[in-house]
Design goal:
- The protein is of the alpha/beta class.
- The chain folds into 2 domains: about 210 residues, Isopropylmalate Dehydrogenase, CATH 3.40.718; about 130 residues, Isopropylmalate Dehydrogenase (3-Layer(aba) Sandwich).
- The protein has a 10-stranded mixed beta sheet, sandwiched between helices. Strands 6-7 form a two-stranded antiparallel sheet.
- α1 crosses α10, α8 packs parallel to α9 and α11 packs across α12.
- The relative contact order is 0.17.
- It binds 3-isopropylmalic acid (IPM) and magnesium ion.
- 3-isopropylmalic acid binds next to α4.
């Protein structure tokens, strides 16, 4: 029997509800694939601040580094919006990423055939979309110095070193090798010095991957192309803030932000989380879509634990649930045969995954 230790960070808002469903599905595949998962919960975000005064207690980093992977729900909410910046849940998340060294954020955007009508774009534009945003996660303007503000000025610095660009570029090319072998690097090299370096370095790294076709695009054009013809993209490689924006945009191709998973990986341990936020407005009502978190658990099995058979079972179960017409409320108007709650959806997927 294979044993793995998973750190669970449920977080705020709908975080606990969706993590519970992912655990249900993990346990279902474990029982049929001769795997044993043990879980350790750790606090982060507003709930951690409420209990410990710190959105990222040291204990959480310790528990995470002691595990094989971290499964993460969501953090934040209005309740904590007026705290000083360093006490806010988001600051905890940024520190967490930095401390774990997860420099590569992988955000796939896939359009499920069953939900091709749920997109706000025409079905003929989004049908078959399958792209991956590879976002640099612990550098760029999010972390650059100097930064600060006074009464009349606020400033941040967008900075990338050669080394930071090299490692994220390798990640993108390696992923492209397992997909359609196309990387589009996105920058603003017509305006920004940091982007000129980015473009130069990515072009150099590309020489080590002769099979991969590299193109470059300015970020404003990329935002437009994503809506005009999203199928042109395979891997989109980009920096922290451009990737933040483009991955939200890409997520809407699929019809609901409640569907898409992500992985943040680096030298140490990986963090697997839905790309959506904590949705405090619907927390506790049992209507959140758990699919993004369940799909994140599947990415965790595939990328962190090498359990691709179990991951395939989960992915297949998600597709089957959608195909049979099960929908949570966010997707209720798209060919639903039955509208189900968060926990019903988790149970349906768990049942299919166990078969
Ligand atoms: C994300 C989020 C975070 C980010 C916030 C909550 C700090 O938007 O993961 O995309 O900007 O990275
Ligand atoms: Mg974001």
């Amino acid at each position: 029997m294979k044993r793995y230790k998973i750190a669970l960070i449920k977080g705020d808002g709908i975080g606990p509800e969706i993590i519970d469903e992912a655990v249900k599905v993990l346990d279902a595949v474990a029982s049929c694939c001769d795997i044993d998962f043990s879980y350790e919960e750790a606090l982060m975000g507003g709930c951690a601040y409420d209990i410990t005064g710190d959105p990222l207690p040291q204990e959480t980093i310790k528990i995470s580094l002691n595990s094989d992977a971290v499964l993460f729900g969501a953090i934040g909410g209005e309740k904590w919006d007026n705290l000083p910046r360093e006490k806010r849940p988001e600051s905890g998340l940024l520190r967490f990423r930095k401390e774990l060294g997860v420099y590569a954020n992988l955000r796939p955007a896939v359009v499920y055939d069953e939900l091709v009508n749920a997109s706000s774009l025409k079905p003929e534009v989004v049908e078959g979309v399958d792209l991956m945003v590879v976002r640099e996660l612990i550098g760029g303007i999010y972390f650059g110095e100097p930064k600060g503000r006074d009464e009349n000025r606020g400033w941040n610095t967008m900075v990338y070193t050669r080394e930071e660009i090299v490692r994220i570029a390798h990640e993108a090319f390696k992923i492209a090798m397992t997909r359609s072998k196309r990387v589009c690097s996105i920058d603003k090299a017509n305006v920004l010095d940091v982007s000129q370096l980015w473009r130069e370095v990515v072009t150099e790294v590309a020489k080590e991957y002769p099979e991969v076709e590299l193109s470059h695009m300015y970020v404003d054009n990329a935002a437009m192309q994503l809506i005009r013809d999203p199928r042109q993209f395979d891997v989109m490689l980009t920096g922290n803030i451009f990737g933040d924006i483009l991955s939200d945009e890409a997520s809407m191709l699929s019809g609901s932000i409640g569907l898409l998973p992500s992985a943040s990986v680096g030298a140490k341990i990986g963090v697997y989380e839905p790309i959506h936020g904590s949705a405090p407005d619907i927390a506790g009502q049992g209507i959140a879509n758990p699919i993004a978190t369940i799909a994140s658990a599947s990415m965790m099995l595939r990328y962190a634990l090498g359990l691709s058979e179990a991951a395939d079972k989960i992915d297949g179960a998600i597709k089957r649930a959608l195909k049979e017409g099960y929908r949570t409320k966010d997707l209720a108007q798209y060919d639903a045969k039955e509208v189900c709650s968060t926990s019903e959806m988790g149970s349906i997927i768990a049942n299919y995954a166990a078969k």
